[in-house]
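Researcher: We're teaching a course module on how sequence relates to structure. For the next exercise, students receive a sequence and then see the predicted structure as tokens, so they can try to spot secondary structure elements on their own. Here is the exercise chain.
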Amino acid sequence: MGTLYLVRHGQASFGADDYDQLSALGQRQSLRLGQYWAERGLRFDAVLTGTLRRHAQTWAGIADGARLDAQALSWPGLNEYDSEAVVRAVLPHGRDAMLGDPHTPEGYRAHFRLLRDGLAQWMAGTVSPQGMPSYTDFVRGVTSALDHVRTQHHGQKVLIVSSGGPIATAVGHVLGLSPEATIDLNMRIRNSAVTEFQFSPKRHTLLTYNTLPHLDGNLYADWMTYA
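Model: And here is the predicted structure for the students to work with:
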């Protein structure tokens, strides 16, 4: 049996013009995860990441903290959906003001209410967010990475660095969850959180979900973030 570790990227730049960039805290979260694994002697036989900047930056922080020199395999199917496109697909025409200021509690809540609605409709095939694949194709991109790990790395330790959407989709696929339950998982996954699968050539099995063992203790009490 092998073990697959799926890590959501560190805190990105929610509300900024360019979300796809780790914040200073996101960089520290990633470095700390690598240090935590180094303290326990964990090393990886293979590493896969999405192709987004925040994925590469998170892997760089992990590798730095753990003193790893493995080359990561870029896997586009591990990229996140476009949350702004999802929101705008269900936003009434000309009602951008409904989004509000994402830095305020009201604006933050409004964004995620619309995101939840948009995800549900995208999954059901009732909306097609601009520039995005169908949900069926999105799932296929995620499961292609799982299949690669399962068939090519039996008995090994593998790391995937991705985003909340693909990781929740992977868990939903393995557990056979409904779209609504998968969305709930997606909304709760934390930055730099670790999810573990055990795998054989035939299947993946969930071991843990959304854990932050590297941030345990008072020193890291304010390092837990969701966006």
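Model: If you want an answer key for the exercise: The CA atoms of residues 5 and 156 lie 11 Å apart. Residues 82-131 form one domain.
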